[in-house]
Amino acid sequence: MGRYLKSFIVQIGKDILIRFPKKVLLFGTFIKEFNQFKSRNDRRFSVTTSDMYPCLKDKVSTTPFDHHYIYHPAWAARILSKTKPKEHIDFSSILSFSSIVSAFVPITFYDYRPAELNLSGWKGGAADLCNLSIADNSFESVSCMHTIEHIGLGRYGDSIDPQGDIKAINELKRITKPNGDILFVTPVGKQKIEFNAHRIYSYELVLELFEGCTLQSFSLVPDEGGIIDNANPGLVAQQTYACGCFWFKKNI
Asked: 32 and 93 share a domain?
């Protein structure tokens, strides 16, 4: 039985080496460095195999990041630093945006799944963006970023509704004051829906959905990364899954 077990373990080892050679090499380097560290340990900390925590993917030449989710909050924060609203309302954008910007602009954050966050300058609450219990023309500065594309697809526990995105955009426009700002971000490119992840919009469709608003500026995070301020709208049709950053003003 022992001979068969040993043969089985050896075969598994060979299969792992064949299928995941890079991971095996990385782990081999990890073991070598672990032994080096342990032999040089200054005894302030115990170094044991039971406390190993291999991090095998971090030896890279530049800091990795998600271009969509780094650039679009940075884009929005720069606009707020210019417009300086007395209060800003954010609907379901990445939470780090409102948590950081609340240091210099009071922010209320609403989400279908409310956040439990305790920070000065930040308030939160629950809201269904398709049916907001907020009066018309309430706010001068509103954002909804990388969110609309999900609404109505059931991904986050919301109801299935093919027109959920339209209803949500209409609500954003309704609650914004005339001449107020709407910062809107969504995937753009060749128009399609990838159920139940997201929708991808054409530039023209976004403008159509924001009828009654005037575009102030458009920036683009293209497929290859980076950000293009005041981007040529014609670039959008060449993209597969880019990030469109639209600054609208609601018409008076």
From this structure: no
